[in-house]
Amino acid sequence: MITLEPIGVIHTPYLNNAPYQPVSNDVGEFYVDLDEAYTDGLKELLRFKYIYLLFYIDRLHEKPKMRFTPPWLENKELGLFATRTPNRPNPIGLSIVKLINVIDRKIIVSGLDVFDGTPLLDIKPYIKELDDKNDANYGWLDDIDNREHFMLHIKGIPHDY
Amino acid sequence: MITLEPIGVIHTPYLNNAPYQPVSNDVGEFYVDLDEAYTDGLKELLRFKYIYLLFYIDRLHEKPKMRFTPPWLENKELGLFATRTPNRPNPIGLSIVKLINVIDRKIIVSGLDVFDGTPLLDIKPYIKELDDKNDANYGWLDDIDNREHFMLHIKGIPHDY
User: Fold this and answer.
1) ipTM of predicted complex
2) Which among A94, B50, B59, B80 would be 20 to 30 A from B120, CA to CA?
3) pLDDT at A111 over 80
């Protein structure tokens, strides 16, 4: 058994629902309140354009299903680990966000897909050449008739069609 | 307090030391043994070229320092969260690896920087367009005189100079 302790709190405008994946926007409503004990750990962080936020998905209490059909996809059964569903054996969330500013122990970021009050577990820098795999692929998303439309859902970008 | 349970074990050739970041190689010595209860969760995973492995860095028992000077860098003090040091408040490791094969519940991957026997916490697909940020930067690594050489260290790639 592994025990962890939150190091801060993520604040978002999402009180009761959240998009499936981070929205790219710069509205400043998304920020992290890092606990005071860790403020010194932020030195030089602002040099990075993107960071990873790792967080504990604390609102889920259902036992995860190993296989399921995701929203917006009919007739497609997927294994849990081939998806980004939040309902996982270890509910650790991972979001790549743009780093907008660091003011004392407040970290202002671009949009991400979590409820307000989500416990923060870690911050890591997203490093060019190490983390951006230009030859990455879409996996099973290639099977979707309208992948571009589906990616809007995945990213949580609002759209009218 | 948050509690997690390992879902498998990562196997590597590193018994007593490990490089700082994943090595890109395809030797097949790196694989995950997923616990049997989760085998069904692997359906369609092999469609992806890259995956994230999240793991528990279980060999560290030192209290992390919020600021330090990393190896190979003199006169540079960095905040912990601006680095990928394994010694973190919540020692969750994150590696992007190439997915080579999935055979039953054995997941064969490219090299990564962990000790043999490291507990696995999660597997997530690395999705093109969502995770590869082409405009990412190098952060404080830009200050290093010989960044290319330093990146070999960061990636754990052996070199003679």
Assistant:
1) 0.92
2) B80
3) yes
